[in-house]
Amino acid sequence: MRLVLSRSRLGEPVLNHVIRNEWGQPAVWPDAAYPEERIALQYDGEHHGDPEQYRRDIKRQATTERLGWREIRVGKDDIEGERPFLLEKVRAALGTRLRERTVEAPKTPFSGPQLYVRATGTRD
Q: How far apart are CA 37 and CA 70, in angstroms?
């Protein structure tokens, strides 16, 4: 997963990043992450088909999202081939996050922020 992403224009994700809860305590340990965009990547290997592991994965995803992160779950099929689907998943998530952070530009030249200067002293 890391190699596929690092070879793309998306850049290499951070490994072993810790997502902390409201009290600063470690809450989630994604396999990889884009911390600035708050995107967590989880690789689901074969053992994730186990019912107990699946329940833990669902709980982890809920915790990740409650803390303001987006979790992308990645399977073996997502990283195979010439054009791995992983890249599309991450691009879509990054695009969503960037749109959420973008502030709309003013619609008219006069609707933007205004600068007011207060004169000090007297005028001769």
A: 9
d(CA 96, CA 58): 22
CA-to-CA distance for 67 and 70, rounded, in angstroms? Answer: 9
Residue whose token pair is 């305590």: 25
Where in the chain are the domains? 2-99
pTM: 0.72
The pair of three-digit structure tokens given for residue 103, joined into one six-digit string: 């502030």
* pLDDT tens profile 29-50: 999 999 999 999 999 877 656 7
Closest CA to 20 of 76, 80, 69, 57: 69
69 versus 96: the higher-pLDDT residue is: 69
